[in-house]
Design a protein that fits this description.
By secondary structure, this protein is an all-alpha fold. The chain has helices at about 5-45, 45-70, 70-75, 80-95, 105, 110-135, 140-155, 160-165, 170-210. The longest helix is centred in the last third of the chain and has 43 residues, at about 170-210. The chain is elongated.
């Protein structure tokens, strides 16, 4: 039995798959890193830099998808993490800018990967809220909390088997815990801000009466 020709063909096919896989992993790491940087720009309110990084991520995502589409059955799993990060970055930015996030179809992201990324936005919103609290910026705190609640409500409504939604239920449960902690932090912050304003008002009134 001569298997040489068969295994030559198999080796060529697997070599090509291996090359494509390495390229996919390289692009995936680049996309994940750029999404992380984009999110940092949002927290720093460096919105022009965010937009530049986001535009770069869009191009990288297109390259990644084109490679995955060469053999979707083998490579589709490699879209999960980079597309989650992509969805997280754009959704976080849209919420902070008080705009509607683009849909999975518009971004050409797998719907489940989008949902998983949206679940992670809750954690970024908590971090953003805590930064506002530290900087005594209380104006948007209730809006941030409402956005967190809305995300959780919609995620919770996706009541499908875990075999289909993977770790979405776990992320949704984590989001609920994050929201409750944030609700407590925001409540204390708003109470302290009201108390401070009351004290400052009384001090001003006393100074006026003394004059």
């Amino acid at each position: 039995m001569n298997l040489k020709n068969i295994f030559t063909e198999l080796t060529e096919a697997l070599d090509k798959l291996d090359q494509d896989r390495e390229e996919i992993l390289k692009i995936s790491r680049l996309m994940i890193r750029d999404c992380s940087i984009a999110i940092k720009h949002i927290h720093r309110r460096e919105f022009e830099q965010y937009q530049e990084k986001f535009n770069k991520v869009k191009v990288t995502h297109e390259k990644l998808v084109s490679l995955v589409n060469k053999n979707t059955g083998v490579f589709f799993k490699y879209l999960k993490t980079p597309e989650q990060e992509f969805a997280e970055a754009i959704s976080f930015f849209s919420i902070i800018m008080k705009k509607d996030p683009p849909t999975p179809k518009v971004l050409k992201i797998d719907p489940l990967n989008y949902a998983l990324g949206l679940a992670d936005v809750v954690g970024e919103l908590r971090r953003y809220a805590l930064d506002n609290i530290r900087n005594s910026q209380v104006e948007d705190l209730n809006d941030i909390l409402e956005s967190m609640d809305e995300i959780y409500t919609y995620l919770f409504s996706l009541d499908y088997p875990s075999g289909l939604t993977q770790d979405l239920r776990h992320k949704t449960d984590q989001a609920r815990n994050i929201i409750e902690r944030t609700r407590g932090d925001i409540s204390i912050s708003l109470q302290m801000n009201s108390l401070r304003e009351c004290i400052e008002s009384n001090v001003q009134d006393n100074n006026t009466n003394k004059k």
